[in-house]
Every structure is written in C-alpha cells, then in structure tokens.
Specification:
The structure holds two protein chains of two kinds. Helix content of chain A is about 0%, strand content about 55%. By secondary structure, chain A is mainly beta. In chain A, strands 2, 4, 5, 9, 10 and 11 form a six-stranded mixed beta sheet that branches. Chain A has a five-stranded antiparallel beta sheet with strand order 1-3-8-7-6, with no helix packed on it. Chain B is mostly beta strands. Helix content of chain B is about 0%, strand content about 50%. In chain B, the strands form two sheets. In chain B, strands 2, 4, 5, 6, 9, 10 and 11 form a seven-stranded mixed beta sheet that branches. A four-stranded antiparallel beta sheet of chain B has the order 1-3-8-7, with no helix packed on it. In chain B, a hairpin with a 7-residue loop joins strand 9 and strand 10. Chain B is globular. Classes of the chains: A mainly beta, B mainly beta. At the A-B interface, strand 4, strand 5 and strand 10 of A face strand 5 and strand 10 of B.
C-alpha cells in the first residue's frame, strides 16, 4: 500500500508571492505521479501527470518537477493570485498502473 | 464533449436501505475509478474498473459495497444496508487508459439518517 505525504498541510501567501510545496511517495514500483487542483465545492481538476525521473511540466504560472529516485515532486506557483486558492493534491500510481493513492493535500490561500 | 456525470448529486437514505450511485465516464474513457471522501478527510481510492471488469478493489470495504461497470450503461457503486458511517462524498473519475489524467465528476453526497 502506497503512503503519499504532502507538506505543508496549509499555506497562506500574499498575492504576487511565489510558492512551492512538496509531495513525497514511495520510490519503489513507481509508475506515475499526478497533480490535481481542487477548489471548494468543485471536483478535482488534473494539472500534470509525470512519469520520468527529472520530468518538469509547466502550465502557465504553475510548474512541477519529479524525482523518482528519492520519491518526491515539487509544485511551484509563480506570482500567486487569489484564484490560485485551492487544495493541491498529488497522487501516486504504482507500476501495475492500478493502485492510485492520493496525498492529504496542501491547502493554499492567496490573500489579496 | 460532456465531462464525467455523476448522479444523483445528493442522496439521502435511512439506515438499512440501499444506495446506488451512478457514474457515466467521459466519452472514449473506458477506465473508471471510485473514491470516497469522508468528513474532514481526503480522497480515498475504492475501486478501479474497466468495462465489465474489476481491476483493483483493494480500497472497497469487504462487506455491503460492490461496483460494476457493464458493457452498456454507467458504472454503479452500490452500498447495501447503509449505516451512518457511509455518509460521505463519493467521487467518480475516468481516464482513457491507465496512467492518464483522471477527469472527476462532481460527486454524490450521501447522507444517512
């Protein structure tokens, strides 16, 4: 059974600040790492899927990196905006492509 | 292209009744995942299905819970003889194949009286 951790649990930043948070996962039997953005009262929205060690993905002001050898991924948000306020979830998938485990999330609040 | 459709959005049941939650995946998606979010907790994987097959049900409680994804029609998550502890939000997600981003439905909020 995978154990996926995320830190910090919550984060408050000022508008315009850049921020980052961490997802750690077991590196053995790794298949893919997913990042999702989950706004209150909505459903999770896929941001990135990463599979290769050293992968770096970018979508607008949000980017993510992946280190499969040590079992961590960083999500970066450049120039945070109030609309970035959400819970950011990572989920790790093992190499059977089946077991899909979410971390507890990082709750980001961007203050105007 | 419609997204993942879940219904009902809200479902109220009395203890001992059956709850049926439906999920229609996105067009072209043959992989369906069910998750449960208990109050004050995160998303927990329940079951992963492809058409007519259960691939991984390691997150499903051993009793009272079952899931299917028939050749025709939506995926169904069935909870028999519901208890108060079944009150939760149940999310369905679909993907075209494993390892691809999952697209989530809006969830079904199940309340047990």
């Amino acid at each position: 059974i995978l154990n996926v951790e995320q830190s910090p649990q919550s984060l408050h930043v000022q508008e315009g600040d850049s921020t980052n948070f961490t997802c750690s996962f077991p590196s053995s039997n790794f298949y893919a790492l997913h990042w999702y953005r989950w706004e209150t009262a909505k459903s999770p929205e896929a941001l990135f899927v990463m599979t290769l060690n050293g992968d770096e993905k970018k979508k607008g002001r949000i980017s993510a990196t992946l280190n499969t050898k040590e079992g961590y991924s960083y999500l970066y948000i450049k120039g945070s905006q109030p609309e970035d306020s959400a819970t950011y979830l990572c989920a790790s998938q093992d190499n059977y492509g089946q077991n899909f485990v979410f971390g507890p999330g990082t709750r980001l609040s961007v203050l105007p | 292209n419609a997204g993942v459709m879940q219904n009902p959005r809200h479902l109220v049941r009395r203890r001992g009744q059956e709850a049926r939650l439906r999920c229609s995946p996105m067009k072209g998606h043959s992989h369906v995942y069910w998750y449960r979010q208990l109050p004050e907790e995160g998303l927990k994987f329940m079951v992963y299905l492809q058409k007519e097959n259960i691939i991984d049900e390691s997150g499903m409680p051993k009793e009272r819970f079952s899931a299917e994804f028939p050749k025709e029609g939506p995926s169904i998550l069935r909870i028999q003889q519901v208890v108060r502890g079944d009150s939760a939000a149940y999310f369905c997600a679909s993907s075209p194949q494993t390892g691809q981003p999952q697209h989530f439905g809006d969830g079904t909020r199940l309340s047990i009286l």
